[in-house]
Amino acid sequence: MKKLINAVDDVVKDSLFGVEAAHSDIVAVDHDNNVVYRIDAPVANKVGIISGGGSGHEPLHGGFVGLGMLDAACAGEIFTSPVPDQMFAADKLVDGGRGVLHIVKNYTGDVMNFDMAAEMAAAEGIRVESVVVDDDVAVQDSLYTAGRRGVGLTVLLEKIVGAAAEEGKDLDYVADLAKRVIANGRSMGMALSGCTVPAAGKPSFELADDEIEVGIGIHGEPGRERRQIGTAAEIAQMLVRPILDDLDYRGSEVIAFVNGMGATPLIELYIMYNEVAKILQAEGVRVVRNLVGNYITSLDMAGCSVTLLRADDEMLHLWDAPVVTAGLRWGK
Amino acid sequence: MKKLINAVDDVVKDSLFGVEAAHSDIVAVDHDNNVVYRIDAPVANKVGIISGGGSGHEPLHGGFVGLGMLDAACAGEIFTSPVPDQMFAADKLVDGGRGVLHIVKNYTGDVMNFDMAAEMAAAEGIRVESVVVDDDVAVQDSLYTAGRRGVGLTVLLEKIVGAAAEEGKDLDYVADLAKRVIANGRSMGMALSGCTVPAAGKPSFELADDEIEVGIGIHGEPGRERRQIGTAAEIAQMLVRPILDDLDYRGSEVIAFVNGMGATPLIELYIMYNEVAKILQAEGVRVVRNLVGNYITSLDMAGCSVTLLRADDEMLHLWDAPVVTAGLRWGK
Q1: Is A231 in contact with B7 (Cβ distance < 8 A)?
Q2: Min CA distance, A122 vs chain B (Å)?
Q3: Looking at the complex, does the CB of residue A316 fall below 8 Å from at least one CB of chain B?
Q4: What pLDDT shows up at residue B332?
Q5: pLDDT bracket for residue B330 (50, 70, 90)
Q6: CB distance A274–B21 less than 8 Å?
Q7: Relative orientation angle of helices A153-166 and A171-183, to the nearest 10 degrees
């Protein structure tokens, strides 16, 4: 294993010091709890939006803290849920008097720990609502989940819901909006390589020189099947077809998101975007916004995922709203 | 070789179709010449800023086309200079009547071809000035250069000079500013792995499991030395010391840029940024702006580089000016 780290046990801590050093105009870090939060938190009379999960998916979630997106993000160890104390600390940091929304990716540990934190917050008089993202169509249950995994849609959800909170919407409204986004979003991913968790020291799995894993999760957990690698056009079909089979996007306006898993060069992601866009056009799906890049990663995994979100006018308005974070900057 | 591509010969073309499909609100693409240009080019009464070079370094340069940065970028084949016809086509697309600045990274082919394009443009009555970026302190001459290579500083230069042109500065002013940026910027990079050019089909070089290449260029060309991997803190020293030995930044205000080579996860880049910031603080170098991420890459190479730019008040003002591009969004 070759990585730019000091020690296996210091990876998350050290990187949070780096985030703080680089982005002190946007965020601060509670190093006791590994919570990244807006420097102006709590924002009075604004619903607080928090998320979090295992580290190793950067810029998700810490890179999405800032005006118009998250108020705080809780960083667990690599691919490991944060503990309830971290989330509770975040709740207290961001509650501006109108309650807090927890955005939870559907992994057993995350769901359980965010639930526990919500109870702790309630006991202190902080109202919490929770939503669980489960957009991955690849597998019904998986190594770490009951039900579908939460993946790429999380990025789009955090942007849209964050903008609504910034505009002053109340907690019920924001939670309902989040559920609407979740109901209308689907994702599917693939890998060209495994990823190496520092503490493990070796790749999560090995693929042959001509092999890919289709339906991969964001922790190197197994997908649907291993197949021989195809062209970008063929791989785009492997990702987009299962999404369209799961939810009929024909005739809809969508935000299309091609995400890199961490080690895939941008030039390849644009080739994939081109193929995805061609399929969608042929199917009568109207792409009205898009995002291409490494936004929810799996350490040094090579590969990509596709996310589609059927977006109504309100979601598009919120997608276009200002955002000032380290990981996602303003611009359509 | 496993890559998300259709065919080796179509990599650049296909990716440019993807860029156009994703960012038609910002750029258009001249597919005959592989030139990415601002949709509003030529901008009347504005100096045109163009750059270009071999592909494989994305988001550089095409991702930096847009308001406040480049007017056009010429994409060569992977790691291969564009030809003069491409640059001349770009000159004609962007000249708004006040001339064009060529930003050239110091590689023999690029320098020669941009020179030839400048002559072609002059013959058509387009005034062209050129600047050559040569910020890499690693080696004096190299496989592809007479003199130092142009690397990370190019990103900072394109932002600053692009903002000056947007503010209406004339060609002489913008060219002088560019030379001032070049005089005050230095870089040094390292690799944990080689990169694989699609047409070659195998990594540019192989490193042992505990080995790194220090002073690497952005094409997998050799650096200063191969060494055993160290901690992030040790690697930061290997990169920052040669920069400080080359130019005395003590007491200066700088923009500090930690760049990923393409396959290195963001979490590791933030660990590196933290170590770089600590060294600079100890040396009395004042970091007043920073940039952390994959901005000038080398396909799927793992590794990073550090760039420092001694920035005066004008440069900082221009760094903070609005920018609307696919690869670099506005925000300090």
Answers
A1: yes
A2: 33
A3: no
A4: 43
A5: low
A6: yes
A7: 150
Homologous superfamily assigned to B185-310: Dihydroxyacetone kinase; domain 2 (3.30.1180.20)
d(CA A229, CA A224): 14
Reading the block at residue A255, the tokens are: 């935000």
CB proximity A294 to B under 8 Å: yes
- Predicted pLDDT at B164: 98
Q: Is B299 on the interface with A (CB under 8 A)?
A: yes
pLDDT digits (tens, 9 = 90+) for A219-248: 988 888 999 999 999 999 999 999 999 999
Q: What is the pLDDT of residue A34?
A: 98
Q: Where are the domains of chain B?
A: 8-184, 185-310
The residue count of chain B comes to 332
Concatenating the DSSP letter of every residue in A241-285 gives HHHHHHS--TT-EEEEEEEE-BSS-HHHHHHHHHHHHHHHHHTT-
Average pLDDT for chain A: 96
Residue A332: pLDDT over 60: no
With pLDDT > 90 as the criterion, what percentage of chain A qualifies? 93
Question: Using an 8 Å Cβ cutoff, are B156 and B163 in contact?
Answer: no
Question: Which residue among the candidates B23, B61, B102, B219 is catalytic per the annotation?
Answer: B219
Instruction: List the alpha helices (DSSP H) in chain A.
Output: 11-22, 84-94, 108-123, 153-166, 171-183, 232-246, 266-282, 313-319
Query: What are the tokens at B157?
Result: 């230069």
Q: How far is CA A87 from CA A53, A110, A320, B19, in A?
A: 10, 10, 29, 39
CATH topology of domain A8-184: Rossmann fold (3.40.50)
Beta carbons of B48 and B166 less than 8 angstroms apart? no
Q: What share of chain B is helix, strand, coil (3-state, %, to 5)?
A: 35, 25, 40
How large is the average pLDDT for residues B87-99?
97
CA distances from A8 to A196, A218, B216 (A): 12, 20, 25
Per-residue pLDDT reduced to its tens digit, A120-154:
999 999 999 999 999 999 988 777 778 999 999 99
Residues of A serving a catalytic function are 57, 219
